Amino acid sequence: MTSTTMPMLDTYPQSINLDRRRLAATIDALIACSEACTACADACLSEGMVAELTKCIRTNMDCADICATTARVLSRHTGYDANISRTLLDACAMACKSCGDECASHAEAHEHCRICAESCRACEQACRDLLASMS
Amino acid sequence: MTSTTMPMLDTYPQSINLDRRRLAATIDALIACSEACTACADACLSEGMVAELTKCIRTNMDCADICATTARVLSRHTGYDANISRTLLDACAMACKSCGDECASHAEAHEHCRICAESCRACEQACRDLLASMS
Amino acid sequence: MTSTTMPMLDTYPQSINLDRRRLAATIDALIACSEACTACADACLSEGMVAELTKCIRTNMDCADICATTARVLSRHTGYDANISRTLLDACAMACKSCGDECASHAEAHEHCRICAESCRACEQACRDLLASMS
Amino acid sequence: MTSTTMPMLDTYPQSINLDRRRLAATIDALIACSEACTACADACLSEGMVAELTKCIRTNMDCADICATTARVLSRHTGYDANISRTLLDACAMACKSCGDECASHAEAHEHCRICAESCRACEQACRDLLASMS
C-alpha cells in the first residue's frame, strides 16, 4: 500500500500549523488502526467463543469510528481550529488505549487481537505525540 | 420523521448506565446536527460568495463527522466504557460550539447557516447535559 | 426528534433535480435505518444467544454504514451526478433488503430485530421509490 | 505506512469467498482513495479559485464517503452476502470514475487534483477487477 497522505499534504496550498511529517504519520496510524479494528471486530464475530468477545467487538467498533473521524479532521487544514483537533485527539487516544487494553487481553488466544492491539498502541502514541507538539 | 432511537433503546436486553430518555434525546440531537451540518456545507458550496464560507464548510464537515461518530458510540451499550463516552462527548460539544459560532456569524446572510447554528447549539447543550449527568 | 432535513433542503440556494419532499423523506428513512441498525447490532451483541446472531450483527453493520453514506450523498446537490446517486441507491436498497430479511428472521425472538426489520423495509422502499422517480 | 490489511485478513478464522491478496489490494486502494479525496476537498477549499472547484469538492466528499464504506464492507467476511458487495462495488467504481474525471480536469492547475485523480483511477480499477473475479 502506497500511502497518499504525505504527497497530498505536500500539495496543500496554504500554511499548516503543525509539522507535516508528524501529521502524516499520525493520519496514517489512525487509518491503519481504524482498518485493524474493523477487521478485528469481524474476526471476533467468527470465533467460536464469540460470547466472550462481545466487549472486544464493541470497543473495536468505537475505536474504528473514532479513528476514522480523527483522520478526517486532521486531514483538513482550512479554517483550522486547534480546540477541535485537541479534544478529538484526546478522545481518540483514550479509545485507542481502551481498545488496545481489551485486545491485548485476548492476544494470546487470537492473533487478530494481537495485531490489532499493536495497531491501537501505535495509534495512541501517535495521537499523544501530536497532542504534545500542539501545546 | 419517526425516530427509532427511543424504541430501539427500550429493547436493549441488558441494563444501561445512563438515563434512557436523556440518552435518546442526545442521540437524536447528534443525528439532526450531523445532517444539518452536511447540508449546510453543501449549501455554502453553492452560494455565490463561497470564498467567504470556506471556514464554515470545513467546520461543518468536522462537526458532521464528529456528531455521527458520537451518535454511534452512544448507541452502543455492550461493554460500556465511560472514559470513551466522556472524552468523545467533550470533543463533540467543542465541535458543536465552534460550528455553532461559525454558522451564527453567517446566520443573517444565509438561512441554512441560521438553522444549522440552532442545531449545533441544541446538540452542544445535549452533549453537556449528558456529560453532567455522568459525573 | 425534529428533523432538520426538510427545513435545510428548503434553504438550498440553487435548483435540485429531484422532488424535495420525496428526497427529504428518503434521507430521513436512511438516517432512521442507519441508527436502528447500529442499535440492533449492539443489542444482538448483548443477547445470550449472540453466537446465533453473528450474521445479523454483520449485516446490521454493513447496512448502517451504507445508509449513513447514502444519506450524506443525497444531502448534497452541488455538482449533482445522477450516476453516483443511482448506483448508490441501488446498493443501499440491496443492503436494506438483506438486512431486513435477516432481522425479520429473528423478529419473533428479539423485539430489536423486529423494529429494525421494519426500518429496513421502509428504507428499502424509500430508496426504490426515489430511484423510480429518477428515470 | 505499514498496512495492517493483509496481516489482518490472514488471521480471519473462517474461509473467505474471495482471493485474499486481491481483496487486500482493493481494500488498501479504497482506503488510500478515501484519504486522497478528503485531502483534495480541503485543498480545493483553500485555493483562490474555490468558486470553480465546487463540483470537485462535492464529488471528492461523495467519493471519500463511498470508498470508506466500501472498505469497511469488504473488511467483513462473517455472514458474507455477495449481493451487497457486488452492488456496492459497482457504486464505488462509479464514484471513483466521476471523481477521477472531475479531478483530472483540474490536474494541470492543481497538483492535489492530479494525485487524487490517479488514486481514483487506481481504486476504480481495483473495484472493477474484484467485481470481475466475483462472477
Write structural notes for this entry.
Chains A, B, C, D: This is Four-helix bundle copper-binding protein. Chains A, B, C, D: InterPro entries: Csp_YhjQ (IPR005560), YHJQ-like (IPR044543). Four copies of one chain form a homotetramer. The first copy, chain A, has five helices and no strands. Chain A is an all-alpha fold and 135 residues long. Chain A has a single domain, classed as Substrate Binding Domain Of Dnak, Chain:A, Domain 2 (Up-down Bundle). In chain A, helix 2 packs antiparallel against helix 5 (111-134), helix 3 (54-74) runs antiparallel to helix 4 and helix 4 runs antiparallel to helix 5 (111-134). The first copy, chain A, starts with a helix and ends with a helix. Chains in contact: A-B, A-C, A-D, B-C, B-D, C-D. Chain A binds chain C through residues 41-42, 45-46, 48, 50-51, 54, 57-58, 61, and chain C through 41-42, 45-46, 48, 50-51, 54, 57-58, 61.
Number of strands of chain A: 0
Give the N-terminus to C-terminus distance of chain A in angstroms: 33 Å
- Strand-and-helix sequence of chain A, N→C? HHHHH
User: How much helix is in the residues of chain A?
Assistant: over 70%
Multimeric status of the protein = homotetramer
Please outline the major beta sheet of chain A.
none
Topology (elements, then pairings):
The structure is a homotetramer of 135-residue chains.
Chain A: H1 5-10, H2 20-45, H3 54-74, H4 82-104, H5 111-134
